[in-house]
Amino acid sequence: MQCPESLRVQAYFDDEVDSVTAAGIEQHMEHCAECRALLQDLEQLRAAMQQELPYLRAPAALRARLSRALDQERAAESSLGLRWPRWRWPVQSFWVGSFSGGFATAAVAILAFVIWAPRFANPLADDLVGAHLRSLMPDHLIDVVSTDKHTVKPWFAGHTDVSPVVADFEPQGYRLIGGRADYLDHQRAAVVVYQHGPHVINVFSWADSQRALPANATRNGYHLIFWKSGDLEYCAVSDTAPDELLGLVHLLQGLSTPDARDSKN
Amino acid sequence: MPHLDAAYRFARWLARSPDDADDLVQEAILRAFRGFDALRGSDMKAWLLTIVRNCHFTALKQEQRRGLVPLPEEHDAQDGHALIASTPDPESESIQRDEQHTLESLISGLPDVHREVLILREIEDMDYRDIAAVTNVPLGTVMSRLARARSALKKQWLRHNDGVPRAVP
To answer: What is the mean pLDDT of each run of 10 residues along chain A (265 residues)?
Structure first.
């Protein structure tokens, strides 16, 4: 049978694990001949694919055809007097700039990127997405497995610095599946894990830093919604649709106000 | 033109012919240009490849609606290989070309969902989360599909390399 560590060995090979996990996997491979062989296979296959498959580039004829098509597109657009909604503008001008090579449009494209760049530079959001992705690795998702908030909530008291709202929203489609401790922004954060359809939602919480929260964001298909409640800051992360994620956030926000009621249950 | 080559390579693996791939790339670039699909996340390559993939499926659906059921693809490369493999060619260049065709046809023979994650990982060098974004599946699914694709390809590749079918555990 296949070694249960094989997916982790693959993730190690693909450079998808942090250094601590990598060390663990290397240690495992010392004892597991099957995983050593797997690593060798993965290396050979990659070498074969990279050496032996033709590295295709878009043919010149296609490039010329695309330039013509985009010229037509721009002509049609200006004759109709169309105006692009503001939020589309940076992306569109990037393409115009890169295709025409004209100085003016290229300058606009660069400017658009300069304006946009700070919105992408958000280390906390990067950390959160990183933590979310790590949690999806085998065996990383949950430290305490429970669908009962009375099990999950006390567990946090012993393992993290915060005590977040914990509740099960199974009837609404958000099933509580457990909790986890994570290290975030220089402190131990509590993570409540929900399942929504096929998607995992991690709800991170940490002590209020007294700073402004980052804006809600989307990174590589993962949505992040931030909010503050009581003396905690929260962030929900998932690849589920933004409005689905917002549904859970609203449920949690609705609960956190009368927190006293929770202790009576 | 950023990532046009990547879009073209991906289109070639998705489409049935080079001409179809050209059409697919044009459709995708125009969609990207028109801004129908908002740039999600910060990775433009993943965004463009997502559009290429969506355009491919849209075109497939339209064909099915029109009742144009595509004929099963003839694998010329594979046939060629079978001939050459029985009489080894002394010229190393054509052996290499032959191996390309073999590996290429083995990859072409993988199920679509396995082939695309493999190509995105090994040829486009994308990380798991970008592959998950392009193929619109959870990260865990990317990992398991990648593992299956690699294991299937390895078994078939071994058989071809050794010239004789070999039992693989």
So the answer is: 89 93 94 95 93 87 88 70 40 48 49 45 76 75 77 81 87 89 80 89 88 80 86 90 89 69 40
Token pair for B23? 């059409």
**Looking at residue A119, what is its pLDDT?**
43
Q: Compare CB distances from B143 to A11, A55, A70 and report the shortest one's residue.
A: A11
CA distance A147 to A83: 51
Which value, in Å, is the radius of gyration of the alpha carbons in chain A?
24
Q: What is the ipTM of this complex?
A: 0.76
Residue in B with minimal Cα distance to A9: B147
Nearest 5°: phi and psi at A147? -100, 10
Answer whether A46 sits within 8 Å of B122, measured CB to CB: yes
Q: Which residues of chain B have pLDDT under 50?
A: 71-91, 164-169
Q: How far is B74 from chain A (nearest CA, A)?
A: 19
- Residues contacting residue B135 through CB under 8 Å, at least 6 positions apart: B53, B113, B116, B117, B120, B142
Q: Check residue A185 and give left, alpha or beta (phi > 0: left; psi -120 to 50: alpha).
A: left
The continuous run of DSSP H or E covering A222 comes out as: strand A222-229
- Reference A219, options B141, B28, B6, B46; nearest CA is B46
Residue B47: both structure tokens together? 């965004």
Distance CA B91, CA B97 (A): 10
B140/chain A closest Cα distance in angstroms:
7
Q: Which residues of A touch B14 (CB under 8 A)?
A: none
Tell me what pLDDT residue A104 has.
47
Residues of B in contact with A87 (CB under 8 A): 38
| Encoded amino acid at B129, one letter | R
Q: Which two tokens stand for residue A244?
A: 């689905």
**What value does the CA radius of gyration of chain B take, rounded to a whole number of Å?**
18
pLDDT of residue B88: 41
- The model's pTM is 0.52
pLDDT of residue B35: 67
Chain A contact for B79, CB < 8 A? no
Flag whether residue B114 sits within 8 Å of chain A, measured between CB atoms. Answer: no
